[in-house]
Amino acid sequence: GAVASIRYLKAHNEVREAHQERAAALKARLRRAGLPVMPSVSHIVPVLVGDPVHCKMISDILLEDHGIYVQPINYPTVPRGTERLRFTPSPAHTDGMMDELAEALEALWVRCNVKRVGGYAA
């Protein structure tokens, strides 16, 4: 169970490092695409959408058209206007998978007219 998982991760630092490397790789890809990746020191990669309808729509389209599941995070979990998609890449996610995700998100940002980096007030 959970205790065995914790023991395993404590004994296998390379798994934790691989998890962090994959998260960093995804963040870099999404930032290069001009997508608003929110700050995060964990393996979670939050991408700001800023609208609950678009957040759910993008999540649904990713699953239906690309077979990619992502959790949409909406109010009341986060404040209104900060709705986001929460990606959790793992060591099993390849560069190709991340490229596919980045390309799909770029197209959906255009299709749904979602703000990119620089489109939000500081």
Unreliable stretches covering 5 or more consecutive residues = none
- Give the H and E element order: HHEHEEH
Instruction: Indicate the CATH topology.
Output: Aspartate Aminotransferase, domain 1
- The CATH class turns out to be Alpha Beta
What's the number of helices? 4
Helical/strand content category: mainly alpha
Q: Let me know the number of strands.
A: 3
Q: Average pLDDT, to the nearest integer?
A: 93
The main β sheet shows up as: 3 strands, antiparallel
Spatial separation of the terminal alpha carbons: 43 Å
Task: Characterize the structure shown.
It is built from 4 helices and 3 strands. Helices cover 51% and strands 9% of the residues. The model has no long low-confidence stretch (mean pLDDT 93). The protein has a single domain (14-111), classed as Aspartate Aminotransferase, domain 1, CATH 3.90.1150.10. Strands 1-3-2 form a 3-stranded antiparallel beta sheet. The protein has helices at 2-11, 13-32, 52-66, 95-111, and strands at 45-48, 71-73, 84-87. The chain has 122 residues and is mainly alpha-helical.
